[in-house]
## 1
Amino acid sequence: MKLVAVSKFHPVSRLMEAYDAGQRIFGENRPQELAGKVPRMPADVEWHFIGHLQTNKIKLVLPYVSLVQSVDSLHLLEAIDRWGGENGRVIDILLELHLGAEETKHGLSEEEILLCCGKVPFPYGNVRIRGLMGMATNTEDEAVIEADFARIEALFNKIRAERPELRDTFTELSIGMSGDWPLAVRHGATMVRIGTDIFGPREY
């Protein structure tokens, strides 16, 4: 399982403390902040983008990241594919399922994800779908969180079962944060996104 250190809002000095302790994967959710941190960190850092990404900001993100975890619309997927074609790149992404109960959260529906993964031939030649990402409902009720994680786990397994040709690449399930990662691990998480438990409260 991969640990993504959610470093948004924290200064490079704090990131370097985690780096010196052995951490190599960092997650950011603001394009300008990401672009500003990349040149100030060692070259072997693996950057993930984990926040809502506007299409007019992809040029600040895609040159630097190894994975966009938060592809939350088909419009964004198409824009990433176009950028990849224009720049000779294949971009690794996760499709974000609208998982929690909050209407303010971004994400694709299960139907949209199944439609996207079911297209043969796959129409996006400069995108590689590596798996799914989701955020559970913001609640202390573990039963609700478990239900959210079970739902995305079931969708992940359904796609892998129905599209065996994707199994070698569709391998990542990014669920779980500081407050709920043990539950996520029980539901097959291959990545957890941990911020507060590593860096403490955010510095604004």
Note: The chain has a mean pLDDT of 94.
## 2
Amino acid sequence: MDVTSATSAASTSQATTAQKTLASSFDTFLTLLTSQLKNQDPMSPMDSNQFTQQLVQFSQVEQQINSNKSLESLIALTKSQTATAAVSYLGKKLTLIDGTASLIDGKAQWTYTLPNTAATARIVITDAKGHSVYTADAEKLRGPHTFNWDGKDASGALMPAGTYTLKVAAIGADKSKIDSAISSNGTIEEVDLSGTEPALMIGTMRVPLSKAAHISGQ
């Protein structure tokens, strides 16, 4: 796939269109000006100040259009470089720290870390719409813990592949809330370049490149 060509073809230059319009208007202006000069009254010649000002205005507009074209080229180059970098991540491992994970073939895994030992702790898994689909007791000891989910909801039904979020509701002995750090890993199987920002695909889960916490080799 030629990422640079795809990026260039996807963007239409507004500056180029404006320049063509300006050129057409300028040609019309020169035609009218020439006609007026040819047919002016020799005894009462035209005031040159007016069309001189118009020429200056055309020049200023052209300079602005050229500046816009340079800016468009810079933006296109940046997008191309970003897309190329995103494609280079194919097959690598992506770490997420927002609690999300991709359920693939009935499997999803998270790691959560408790900064202190909890008196009570529960795991809550929600779907992409925020609906709770599974709850279970969580490990309460201080430190890192791994939770493997088989993709089944509270009734034992297998949930469809997609994005799910794990949260840990932990309470300390003093009844205070304990916040936990949650992460998950997944292999980047595809890169979606159709949007304004490249998206890294882990199964059916789309992760915007800007939200990728860490990417490493397999």
Note: The first strand starts at residue 93 and ends at 96.
## 3
Amino acid sequence: MKKILFIDRDGTILKEPPGDFQIDRPEKFEFVPGVIGALRTIVERTDYRLVMVSNQDGLGTAAFPMADFLLPQQLMLNTLKGEGIVFDEILIDASLPEEHSRFRKPEIGMVEKYLNEYLDYENSYVIGDRLTDMQLASNMGIQGILFGEKQEAGMQLALNTASWKEIATFIVSGSRKTKMVRKTKETEVTVSLDLNGTGRGRIETGLAFFDHMLEQIARHGGVDLDIRVKGDLEVDEHHTIEDTAIVLGECFASALGSKKGIERYGFALPMDEAAASVLLDFSGRAWLEWNVPLKREYVGDFPTEMARHFFASFCQTCRCNLHVSASGENTHHVLEAVFKAFARAVRQAICQTGTAVPSSKGVI
């Protein structure tokens, strides 16, 4: 899934001159305050792609010669590039309003190639200073961020602010969210994950002890986690537990993205007489080492043999390396210690403390 910011130019990145509203001479060229620092933060801290989407009335005509547009445009792009900000694509429509072009915002002609199964509709935005930009967002089926003084947009917006710093904070804080649904003849699993969350969990799998363990991942991992599962429990618990692990692993892989700036590694903890050690590496390679003796066949409604299978399935789809060791007399305590230690390992490993991918390869 691709997270994309579709960003307007005049009035959003560059100040729009009063009068003719055309940035056609160097003396009319000026960045909107805070935009460079905000875009640099977004580029450094997230995996968002940037696409510029702008209407330029009559561009290429005698009224607005191409040369008058290209000089300030190139000056803008060179300045942004010097700060590490590069647009994946620049889309300009030169039609006039009376031409009713399907490529002119708020019509979707310029951006329709992005409207496919790979676009992250929940976490992509149009950022612009006009209500036509917000209408474009609505027409695309994504959310709009209205830049400028508070306006009555007549539609639901993700944000309306005159501060680019506030926009950057909003984008970065929500940049590691994902939602996935997996339906088979055996289960229907829906998982929503926010790695920048606060530890809120809402878990409904039909297995009470399993719910309790998954809640530990949210609470002690410091992530927001919503899991809803409808499984064939009349057969047994296997498919419900396995498919939950599969989707949860996929969500972690998606939310981590390129893994910019994460700690990557992580944890051990005691629980009464039990102790658990979980060594985690979001390495891009799937591997599980499991050394957890369990004395009971069931804890509540949870078959203990499925604990290993849960973590093995998670490793496969998350593509992480996991070493789990535990000991203790009480099987409930042992399993809870394992899930809590795993959660703390996750909390440590997903923490963003930099901007670089933590690998000598430059990619994980």
Note: The longest helix spans residues 331-350.
## 4
Amino acid sequence: MPEKTVGFVGLGIMGLPMAKNLLEEGYSVVGHNRSEEPVEELVESGGENGESPAGVAEESDVVLMCLPDSPDVKRIALGDEDEDSPIIDGLSDGMVVIDHSTISPVVTKEIAGELEEQGVELLDAPISGGEEGAIEGTLSIMVGGNEGALDEHRDLLDVMGETVTHCGPSGAGQTAKAANQIVVAAQMVGVSEALVFASQAGADGESVVEAISGGAAGCWTLDNRAPNMIQGDFDPGFFAEYQYKDLRIATDAGEAFGAPMPQTELAHELYKSMIGNDMGRDDNSGIMQVIELLAGETARAEE
């Protein structure tokens, strides 16, 4: 049985199943979340309640985070007027913090610098694969930071992810995740356009998906989301509001680095429309609904 005690802060739609997978592999897990229900579920599965971010760190050998956005990670990791018990207060020299959140590479480097002053390593290790990947332990994990620290805790990441890739120094994991989200958004928008087009042309959506999935158009979205999209099922595996946030990170980074992003800027605006139409808690494949609004009709499979 593994001897590490793992702290997990952020037990949301991704974090809770990741923490449960660690429990199933025999790791001791101490958790904290802003709302109590996920913590109670973790405890029912054999974990412990750390009571606060600092409390989690005090009881752990390594701390994992999975939080919504850059301000959340900075507040929970380092503290501010709204968080008086941050992770940094419970850390000890030589520990490692692994951040599975998707945030700005600039903020990642800032947090890494402050933790380094306390003798603590930060690995930025954003994830891709949606809720299914988190549940099944098949996530893709992109890691930036000290490779030795990664090697020390790769056993944990191998429980949660099918692919674990060291991408470079601090911030490189977040850069890889931004690239991932650029491609994901392009797939979601492209598949949505194709399905609405097929519907307006009088073709059967299910047949179109079957026909094109095995050719050059084949992609993750066609395999894993298109069947639900043509049924109008947009239950979240990854919230559209998070996709919007991730595209904002990507476009801001593109501006900072001088990288042209014409397609990503368009996808960003389309996801903004989802937020404006109260669709932010739908799955990110729900972008199809915006294309349908533009078309003036829905594209659904016949009963």
Note: Residues 5-169 form a domain with the Rossmann fold fold (CATH 3.40.50.720).
